[in-house]
Fold each of these.
Amino acid sequence: MTRVTVPTPSEGVLEVELDNGPDNLLTMEMCRELTELLLRPPAGAHVLRLWANGSAFCLGRERAGTSPGELRAETKVLVALQRALRTTPLVTIAEVQGDAAGFGVGLLAACDVSVAVADARFWFPEVGIGLAPALVLAWLPRVVGERQAFWLTATGEKITATRALELGLLNAVVGGPDELTKDVDERVAALRKRDPRIHTEIREMLHAGRSLDEDQALELSIDRLVVGSLRRLGQNATTGKS
């Protein structure tokens, strides 16, 4: 049975497991479940830790549609998940224990933090089936630049975890599974020491700034800083802190 396993939050952390055979292909149902969870997380949830069962993290998604209507509906589900990853109030961490391809790379790249084992490989296979990966190209150039985005999608070249780190697709690369668990444990602990509200505000500012030039982003920062400072002063007055 294909599924997204979501246990009850433990100390503010949601551990979400992908489990769909050796390739961990995302189904439309799995995408909808993840989207719903990201947009409407349970009370008290702060960090979402995404990992996969098996040797591969996620080698893409299942393709079922054949008619124009079906293909459009499928694409809208995928777009909704990408948007949810960028707008969720949760801090998202991808724990990448194996290879990722196509939409699987998009999944980990859209998370706030992604850590992978050194022997993981990353690629975009769509060119091999005669398809220009339109959804990938909506976000990939912003991360790696147009030249790298063209090369990766035009050739389907597999890159190492170290190269993915250099390109900005990952935050860190670790030696193996034990180091991966330890690294992500430490990152979760570091995040949990901080106020979830501040993390939400940071994510909102990053999201708002994506479509702005530097001057516009600086102007936006004025109101954001004033509101944040007033909120902090109000909290300190309530708690008696200086």
Amino acid sequence: MPSSQPSVLPLSQALWQDNQDLAAASLENLFVQGIGDGSLPREKFAYYVGQDAFFLEAFARAYSIAAAKAPTWESFQTFHALANGVLQELNLHQSYAESWNVDVKTVEPGAATRQYTDFLLATAWSQPVGITAVAMSPCMRLYAYLGQELAKGGIPSHDYREWITTYSSDEFEPLAKQLEALVNQLSPDTTLTKSTYRYAMICERDFFQAAWQR
């Protein structure tokens, strides 16, 4: 007889499933839909590019703080590898920004950007490493999800092709999975974990909305 016991999802998957309402809100946001169909006004995307560069610097720092707190050599190496991935993305981002006439060195963070980066860095400094992994995981998983959803009909040929290609790629998905593996290894299944993950998802939704309203 097959077991009637329900399967237990890994923590990272359970958190993602519990926040599908916010994932859908980001996908349905007019900013993201504008990237998908190419209709997004260029000035809105240019603003987003600058804000995202500021965010990625904080994201890289949070990875480095997490690495310093990592309990094992293996997790230390994984956090550092993920941080290096963000640094490479930032270097590409700078040339990308130049094509949109954005000087990332002079970007002033908007309220939604500051809300997100302050939350990430405060979590990285004050919380155990597992909670930091939880705070960072939504960004990676959500972007992989958005990229894959927008690419379902094929990669388009409009101005935002590169964005969709990057986040739907076979190279980006493993990075999201690496971080989720750290969540599964290091994070407790607690109320704080759930609220931290959800707050990061809210920050993601608000980040897109702020760019749309710009």
Amino acid sequence: MNILVTGANGQLGNELRTLSEIYSHHHYFFTDIAELDICDEVAVKQFVSNHSIDFVINCAAYTAVDAAEDHPELCDRLNHLAVGYLAQAAESRGASFIQVSTDYVFDGNSFHPYKETDAPSPTSVYGITKLAGEKAALEGCSKTAVIRTSWLYSTHGNNFVKTMIRLGHEREALGIVFDQVGTPTFAADLAQAIMAVVEEGVTPGIYHFSNEGVCSWYDFTVAIHRLASITSCKVRPIHSADYPTKATRPAFSVLDKSKIKQTYQLDIPHWEESLALCISLLNSI
């Protein structure tokens, strides 16, 4: 198949680049803003048509959650309108479409892991635009899989894991929120899940994917420092109210992954296992 991967310079896009060497029976077009502006409807349709694209994987998004509160139109253009352009272009060729979404479509007021059938209720511009993007994807292309994920990190780019390692070396103490609970996702594991969908074929609908297990940002940071052998920095738990942000974060955003595991026969690693692998890879770079 001819596969278009947008947002290819991000964390997930880079992991898909790595996997493309294993799944080398497909032909890939890795694009970012320099190669394809997905906010340009005509350019998107021409690219998909001219390159006979069979599968579109959209990894592009406006992910600066707090900045989104100040730039709602730009956020909507990338997270919603551009998704519609990609979906419609895919549909025009009978292609399949994977749209990557987020736990931020939920308000975080639940106490049970969120299922795909639970009603979304986003509380931030980022979450609102990502939910609109989901609808645009599902309505625009009949062969669409929306995959919601959470707390993404990798060896690439800027992310929480790399920031906590850096701050752990720079500071004597860190205050990290303990009252926001979810599950970290190693981008390499999400990329593997996406390729499983590509290989098996899209069963249309919404899916949830993260690593297994549950933790707070405080627990996550303690594990990062333990696995990175950082002992000089004291990590202490704080309330969200002690670390105010412009955008509201979901207090509880654990995702139920039963559907994607059953549909695509996935065996998902525990978050600490994947975190250990990521830190090992970072140490080898």
